[in-house]
Amino acid sequence: EPEVTQTPSHQVTQMGQEVILRCVPISNHLYFYWYRQILGQKVEFLVSFYNNEISEKSEIFDDQFSVERPDGSNFTLKIRSTKLEDSAMYFCASSEDSVEKLFFGSGTQLSVL
Amino acid sequence: GDSVTQMEGPVTLSEEAFLTINCTYTATGYPSLFWYVQYPGEGLQLLLKATKADDKGSNKGFEATYRKETTSFHLEKGSVQVSDSAVYFCALHHNAGNMLTFGGGTRLMVKP
Predict the structure, then answer these.
(1) How many other C-beta atoms lie within 10 A of the C-beta of residue A23?
(2) Which of A15, A30, B109, B110 has its CA 20 to 30 A from that of A56?
(3) pLDDT, tens only, A20-65
């Protein structure tokens, strides 16, 4: 069964550094998402992406965050200057035609020291 | 805004026990409701869904009924197995948006 792949599974970085989280969505999917879960809290929506542009974003997704689909297969989340509070599990998801059937990757655990 | 509240875990059961994981929501109108499951080391997977009041979603022996009057979507299974050990997430989708709103997740541990 096709799956969403995320790399790396764990990322440790220093506060203020830039990080790029990578995702390979399912090949025929058109909608792409990032969610995150801070330890002990709810899974939170960050951003959705369709047709090479952001279609919706949450208040969390401020100017420090950006997304890109650089080569037609990868979907990346960049955090320009990481903060301690960015430490979380980041999930990538994709769907063929509807947010009502998302396929998630296994997540990248980001630790900001 | 929309929100989802799940019972806190972990929930620990013996094999073949009856499972209930409570989920309630706050939303205007008629959202679609979902249960996702995350097995160890894997991504979240859609387990079941219901799109209107009184609908029952079911899959792999799990069931949940969309109760508009109590704004609930409790997950049930009659006889759990060790392989059901996972984290279960309740979520809703409001037609006006392109995002899911999740609860915090409930960890289920099933002992042989």
Answers:
(1) 26
(2) A15
(3) 999 999 999 999 999 999 988 889 999 999 989 999 999 999 999 9
- Residue B105 to residue B91: CA distance in whole angstroms: 9
Residues A100, B42: C-beta atoms closer than 8 Å: no
Nearest to B43 among A42, A58, A105 (CB): A105
Task: Tell me how far CA of residue A8 lies from CA of A19, A23, A76, A105, B46, in angstroms.
Answer: 11, 9, 12, 11, 23
Contact yes or no for A3 and B102 at CB 8 A: no
- pLDDT in tens for each of the 112 residues of chain B? 889 999 888 999 999 999 999 999 999 888 999 999 999 888 889 999 999 999 999 999 999 999 999 999 999 999 999 999 999 999 999 877 788 999 999 999 999 9
Q: Does the beta-carbon distance from B43 to A41 stay under 8 Å?
A: no
Torsion angles phi and psi, residue A87, rounded to 5: -60, 120
> Parallel, antiparallel, or unpaired for β A103-104 and A88-95?
antiparallel
**Tokens coding B104:** 């915090």
CB < 8 Å to B31, chain A:
none
Distances B35 to A11, A65, A112, B6, B76 between C-alpha atoms, Å: 28, 28, 30, 11, 11
